[in-house]
Amino acid sequence: MALKPVARASSLRERAAVAIRAGIITGEIEEGKIYSAPALAQTLNVSATPVREAMLDLVNEGLVQTVRNKGFRVIPLTERDLDEIFEIRVYLEVPAVAELAGRAHLLGDETFAHLQSFIEDLEASAEAEDVASLIEGDRRFHRELLVLAGNGRLAELVDRMRSYTRRYGYRQLDKATLLRVAADHWRILDALATGDKDLTREVMQDHLAANRGILAGGRSPSAPLA
Question: Going edge to edge, which strands form the sheet with 34-35?
Fold first, then answer.
C-alpha cells in the first residue's frame, strides 16, 4: 500500500480515519480484504491505538466491519444497496433543497459566495484528479445545503447515507468525468438562486440520478424499488 503517513497534529484518531477513508475511496484499502490495526498503523506512521479507535469510528459509519482476532475489512456494497441509499437521498434531500429555494432571497450574497467556494474547490480537486478530496468537497456542499435548510439532524442522516457510497466506484473515474461531476453543482446553485422550487427539485433529482449512474459505471441505475 502507499497510504500517506499521518501528520502528528490535531487528533491522530481523526487524522487516521481521514487517511483510511481516503485509502478505501482510492482502492488502496481493498474491499473484503482483512487489515490489522498494527499493519495500518505502521503504514500511517502512528501507534496502533489511534488506528484502532479510527477503525471503530468507521465501523459505526458502516464502512468497515470487525473480524474477530484478525482486524477489519471493508464491507462489500451491492447494486441493491446503492439503489436503496440513493432512493433515501432523493426522499430526503430533494424536498429539503427545493424548500430552501423558496427562501433563497433570504440567504444573501455572502451565503451564495460561500457555496460558490465549495464548487470552486470541487473543480480544483477534479482538475488534480484528487478523488478523495472531490468526494469530501461534494459531501460538504450537500451538507451545507441541508444545514441552510434548517435541519441539522437531516444533514447528519444524509451524511451517514453518503458514507456508505464513498468506497464504491469513484476510483475508476477519468478526469473528464470528475470535472463534469464538479461542474454539475453549478446547476444546483443556479437553480437555487432563481428561487424556483420546482426547477430546484428537478435539478436535484437529475444530479442524484447522474451520480447513481456514475457509480453504476456509466450504466443506468437498477430498476426502481418496488
Answer: 34-35, 71-74, 64-67
96-127 burial, b for 16+ CB within 10 Å, e for fewer?
bbbebbeebeebeeeeeeebeebbebbbebbe
Q: Which three cell numbers stand for residue 156?
A: 447528519
Q: If you write DSSP's letter for every residue of 179-224 in order, what string do you get? A: HHHHHHHHHHHHHHHHT-HHHHHHHHHHHHHHHHHHHTTTSPPPPP
Q: Are 74 and 32 in contact (CB under 8 A)?
A: yes
Q: Hey, which bits of the chain come out as E strands?
A: 34-35, 64-67, 71-74
220 occurs within a structural domain: no
If asked whether residues 94 and 30 sit together in one domain, one would say no
Range of the domain at 48: 12-74
Q: How many CB atoms lie within 10 A of CB 78?
A: 10
Cβ-in-10-Å burial (0-12, 13-18, 19+) of 5 comes to: exposed
If one counts the domains in the chain, the total is 2
pTM for this entry: 0.75
pLDDT in tens, 60-113: 877 889 998 899 998 887 888 888 888 999 999 999 999 999 999 999 999 999
Q: What is the CATH number of the domain that holds 68?
A: 1.10.10.10
Residue 221 lies in a domain: no
Q: Which of 74, 90, 118 is the last residue of a domain?
A: 74
Q: What does the buried/exposed string (b/e) look like for 35-49 if buried means 16 or more CB atoms within 10 Å of the residue's CB?
A: bbbeebbebbebebe
